[in-house]
Amino acid sequence: MSETDIRVVVLATLKSIAPEVEEATLRADRPLRRQVDLDSIDWLHFLTQLHEKLKVEIPEADYARLVTLDDLVTYLARARKPS
């Protein structure tokens, strides 16, 4: 799965949690939670759905690294690559 495909899944998942999000206004290099006003429960739900959809383990220790849309896509792309 390419980074473009992963980005599509991430954005679709985000919209399932926050349907008011307009993709065109999102900045890939800015804190995502702040842009879409997700509280900690919504953020956890978002990460859990990404785990389920992409079959990628996201340890709680890594949550702090997942700040921007670019961070998420890069992290998930690397996590999906076979070792």
At the first level of CATH, the class is Mainly Alpha
Unreliable sequence segments? none
Give the CATH topology.
Answer: Non-ribosomal Peptide Synthetase Peptidyl Carrier Protein, Chain A
CATH architecture descriptor text: Orthogonal Bundle
* Overall morphology: globular
Q: What structural class is derived from the secondary structure elements?
A: mainly alpha
CATH superfamily caption: ACP-like
User: Can you count the beta strands?
Assistant: 0
Q: State the helicity in percent bands.
A: 55-70%
Strand proportion, as a percent range, falls in: under 5%
Give a written overview of the molecule.
By secondary structure, the protein is mainly alpha-helical. The chain has a single domain (about 5-80), classed as ACP-like (Non-ribosomal Peptide Synthetase Peptidyl Carrier Protein, Chain A, Orthogonal Bundle), CATH 1.10.1200.10. About 55% of the residues lie in helices and about 0% in strands. It has 4 helices and no strands. Helix 1 (about 5-15) packs across helix 3 and helix 1 (about 5-15) crosses helix 4 (about 70-80).
